[in-house]
Design goal:
The protein is an alpha+beta fold. The protein folds into three domains: 4-56 and 422-693, Rossmann fold (3-Layer(aba) Sandwich), CATH 3.40.50.1820; 84-325, Prolyl oligopeptidase, N-terminal domain (Methylamine Dehydrogenase, Chain H), CATH 2.130.10; 330-419. The protein contains twelve helices and 39 strands. The protein has an eight-stranded mixed sheet with strand order 32-33-35-34-36-37-38-39, sandwiched between helices. A seven-stranded antiparallel sheet has the order 8-9-10-11-12-13-14, with no helix packed on it. Strands 3, 4, 5, 6 and 7 form a five-stranded antiparallel sheet that branches. β29 and β30 form a beta hairpin. The protein is globular. The N and C termini lie close together (5 Å).
Length: 695
């Protein structure tokens, strides 16, 4: 393994006295100074100098590996179509499509007038709607947040972020002349929703703590101040909104991770008083659609795996809710989409993605798919009266595909299969579904893929990935990037650990709050299972995760560092205790239902402190580690990975390399641009391969 002195001395952060006292427990935090008190502005020169020193150290490490990085980058890039385009969709008299032209880092958006969804479009009829590449000119970072066209098809509202801070500026342009019809609206997030008359729109405002806490109505061609539609006073709840599939109602939702409250406005009158559907009750989570002039409500009121209920538009009591579809221990209802005469219910059945189709006569059937294991999701389906349902489909060996499911014939039509210009032969690869027994007896699924010629005799390295939080299930989906590992004899696996909802809502509940350590134990136990079954060996396992998955990385290397050959932790949420103690940070109050509130609860304090990766760093050997951060990241603030790396350097007893790379002009998602982002993947893979090579 590469030792630090081989390419220069690592930076050492100063240790400064700082302590906090909660519930009678005094904790020393000598790296607290790395949090700039002016955040989200970071201008403390000592902090910036330290981060830059770490970046320089990272570059020194990568210098001998630049040829490998370039080789990997070329591989990754050659698997991406230089020119690409989406399958068009039809909405409100126009067909829409995005494209990447040769060399484009960002999408170009087009539309063409039409009369129905099945017609062929003359290529000459496509007109440029929005060019992200032009908007990104001279920007170090660029991200299109949302885009919506007015009902009269004359105006477009789009939002952009140019520093990674996820505070978007909303622009409204007249498509007939390209002129702005109102001044830009700053500090927004999410999509703007137009009123029926196309002379006003709703937008969400984020406050200084990056909390979406207000929804406003901007009237075009009007000098009056924007009208406040609703505000959320509870710092733990975020506001969101969405237009119903029928395009008749706007649903306004206030929620944390376990409780929600929804009201609605008619699209033809934003001045109306929002109609409350059901006031918030702790632990009751629900979301709503509009179906056949009634409400269709997905709710965990009765069943943790959710049910669907119907209710009149005028309903003000749950007593008026009527059962429409019941979930159970094996059928986890994860969402719902409606057409004029159909309801589609994505659900997870024994851990496998399915989509249930219910017609207006209550006849039900599942969409039949060609493989036993796969990743399935709804595609773009804006047309309320469509004759087909668009799906996104892939597996660990099947490239991403767009499928249209014909509702009349119940047949699938493949509209697009991901192109891999450098070539791909699925027969060379094999996927498997394994089950590991966790230390408490739970059966944890593992999805795995490898080349057929890779030996299963404990000799192969293995890359194990997981997330394990917020009820997010990592799908066993296709990745062209992973091919660079597979083709070098590395097995790739996904551990479907608790904290995600892979096996149902209970799987999520069993990995949060007081049960949080199940997530980390599951990952370590999956590692042992893969070793015991001959897929790899201790010390040959590469692991990676981002955000809460980065917290997972920190926890498992504290618990079982000897198992792992190298670790990549991206924007890792590792300073859990200090973050949950700081109610002024952007996400903290909303996060308490996920992690616990250590300010109010001594029990929560003790639980978090016992696993928080930063707090549990100890004097032991750690594997080689690559850690990334984003200076403008509002989700995992830059100082969390910076403090963690500083403490690891001080405490660890090995000579293995420890790297910190901070994107100084980016946020939570790293670099923008489809090719620029690939170079960061190439750097991670080069780090892994160089550490394996040095074993």
């Amino acid at each position: 393994m590469t030792t630090p002195h081989a390419f220069g001395e690592p930076p050492k952060a100063a240790r400064k006295h700082h302590e906090h006292n909660h519930h009678g427990i005094v904790v020393q935090d000598p790296y607290a100074w790395l949090q700039d008190p002016n955040y989200p502005t970071v201008n403390d020169q000592e902090i910036l100098d330290y981060l830059q020193a770490e970046n320089t150290y990272f570059e020194q490490y990568m210098a001998p590996n630049r040829e490998l990085v370039d080789t990997l980058f070329k591989e990754l890039k050659n698997r991406k179509s230089d020119s690409d385009e989406s399958v068009p969709y039809f909405h409100n008299g126009y067909h829409y499509q995005w494209r990447f032209n040769e060399g484009d880092q960002y999408r170009r958006w087009y539309r063409a007038a039409g009369s129905h969804e099945h017609e062929q479009i003359d290529p000459r009829d496509w007109v440029t709607l929005l060019d992200e590449n032009a908007l990104a000119t001279d920007q170090d970072y660029f991200r299109l947040g949302a885009m919506s066209v007015s009902p009269n098809n004359q105006f477009i509202a789009y939002s952009i972020d140019t520093d990674g801070g996820e505070r978007f500026t909303l622009h409204v342009i007249d498509l007939t002349n390209g002129i702005a019809v109102t001044s830009p609206i700053t500090h927004t997030i999410g999509e703007a929703i137009w009123n029926q008359h196309s002379d006003g729109l709703l937008y969400r405002n984020v406050n200084e703590q990056w909390r979406p806490d207000k929804i406003y109505w901007r009237k075009l061609h009007d000098d009056q101040a924007d009208t406040l539609i609703c505000a959320e006073e509870d710092g733990g709840f975020f506001l969101s909104m969405h237009l119903s599939q029928s395009e008749q109602l706007v649903f306004l939702r206030s929620a944390d991770h376990v409780t929600s409250e929804v009201s609605y406005l008619p699209i033809d009158d934003f001045s109306a008083t929002p109609v409350m559907i059901s006031p918030r009750t702790s632990g009751h989570e629900y979301d709503v659609e509009h179906y056949q002039d009634q409400l269709l409500i997905r709710s965990n009121l009765r069943q943790p795996n959710f049910d669907l209920f119907t209710a009149p538009l005028s309903a003000h009591s749950q007593a008026q809710w009527q059962p429409f579809l019941e979930g159970d221990d094996n059928h986890y209802l994860v969402g719902h989409l409606v057409y004029e005469n159909h309801v589609f219910v994505p659900q997870r059945v024994d851990g496998l993605d399915q989509i249930l189709v219910i017609d207006q006569h209550q006849q039900q059937h599942f969409v039949e798919l060609p493989e036993a294991t796969y990743s399935l999701d709804l595609g773009v389906n804006p047309n309320y009266q469509s004759a087909f349902l668009r799906l996104q489909y892939s597996s660990l060996t099947t490239p991403n595909s767009v499928l249209d499911y014909d509702l009349a014939s119940r047949s699938l039509r493949t509209r697009k299969v991901q192109s891999i210009p450098s070539g791909y032969d699925a027969t060379q690869y094999q996927s498997e579904r394994l089950t590991a027994t966790a230390r408490d007896g739970k059966q944890v699924p593992i999805s795995l893929v490898h080349r057929r010629d890779t030996p299963i005799d404990n000799s192969a390295p293995l890359h194990l990935y997981a997330y394990g939080a917020y009820g997010y299930a990592v799908p066993p989906a296709f990745s062209t990037n992973v091919l660079s590992l597979l083709d070098r004899g590395i097995i790739f696996a996904i551990a479907h650990i608790r904290g995600g909802d892979d096996l149902g809502y209970h799987w999520y509940q069993d990995g949060k709050l007081q049960q949080r350590e199940n997530t980390f134990n599951d990952f370590v136990d999956c590692t042992h299972h893969l070793i015991n079954k001959g897929y790899t060996a201790a010390g040959k396992v590469l692991i990676s995760g981002g955000s809460a998955g980065g917290e997972l990385m920190g926890a498992v290397v504290n618990q079982a560092p000897q198992l792992y050959a190298a670790v990549a932790a991206h924007v890792p949420f590792v300073d859990v205790l200090n973050t949950m103690l700081n109610a002024d940070l952007p996400l903290t109050p909303m996060e308490w239902p996920e992690w616990g509130n250590p300010i109010e609860s001594a029990e929560d304090y003790a639980t978090i402190q016992a696993y928080s990766p930063y707090d549990q760093v100890s004097a032991q050997d750690y594997p080689p580690m690559l850690v990334t951060a984003g200076l403008n990241d509002p989700r995992v603030t830059y100082w969390e990975p910076a403090k963690w790396v500083a403490k690891l350097r001080h405490e660890k007893t090995d000579s293995n390399v420890l790297l910190l790379k901070t994107n100084m002009e980016a946020g939570h998602g790293g670099q923008s641009g489809r090719f620029t982002a690939l170079r960061e993947v190439a750097e991670e893979y080069a780090f892994f391969l160089s550490e394996l090579r040095g074993m």
